[in-house]
Design a protein that fits this description.
Number of domains: 1
Largest sheet: none
Shape: elongated
Number of strands: 0
Low-confidence stretches: none
Mean pLDDT: 73
Length: 182
């Protein structure tokens, strides 16, 4: 294989190994901070600023257990936007108000993603520093030692050709059940 390709494969392998750790730590931090519940609570408070609409909204059958989120609790971590939309349609007759509320739900999603991206950057930098995952140093080491780079490239080729790399649940009629049986 080409030396540059071997170096690229080695760097991708490093990132692929570190990314699940980053994701797991990211989710742990988000859960510890109750980020979903707090963002949902804050947005719902802004979304329903009319006191006459709050009670019918929180009592709507689709909202159910979200009363804990409205009072600052962390019980509700996630609520489908469709439930919020449908509950608002049930509580509000004015179409303009509903479209404004839908735009606010889009902002909720964007705010949560922005918070997670910030956490991801911090976690990624901390992992890179803690594990000394320096792209330049790793790239230089792989470039200077062609046998190491070729070995990583060969290992990657063998893994891709192995049956464990093939998606075994893709042909299953219910992939989720297939994955859970593993």
């Amino acid at each position: 294989m080409n030396a540059a390709l071997d170096v690229a494969i080695g760097l991708m392998l490093m990132y692929l190994v570190l990314s699940p750790f980053c994701t797991a730590i990211n989710e742990f931090v988000a859960n510890m901070m109750a980020l979903r519940a707090k963002t949902l609570n804050k947005t719902l408070s802004k979304l329903i600023d009319n006191e006459d609409l709050k009670l019918p909204f929180y009592n709507h059958g689709l909202i159910g257990g979200s009363k804990a989120a409205s009072s600052g609790g962390a019980a509700v971590k996630q609520m489908p936007a469709s439930n919020i939309r449908d509950a608002m349609i049930g509580c509000i007759a004015v179409a303009k108000a509903t479209s404004t509320r839908c735009a606010a739900m889009d902002r909720l999603s964007g705010a949560y993603k922005h918070n997670l991206q910030t956490i991801s950057i911090i976690v990624g930098l901390c992992l890179a520093v803690a594990l000394n995952a320096d792209t330049v140093d790793v790239g230089a080491a792989l470039w200077k030692d062609p046998s190491m780079a070729a070995g990583i490239g060969q290992s990657a080729s063998q893994f891709v050709a192995s049956p464990t790399a093939k998606p075994q649940c893709a042909a299953d009629p219910d992939p989720a059940k297939c994955i859970s049986r593993r």
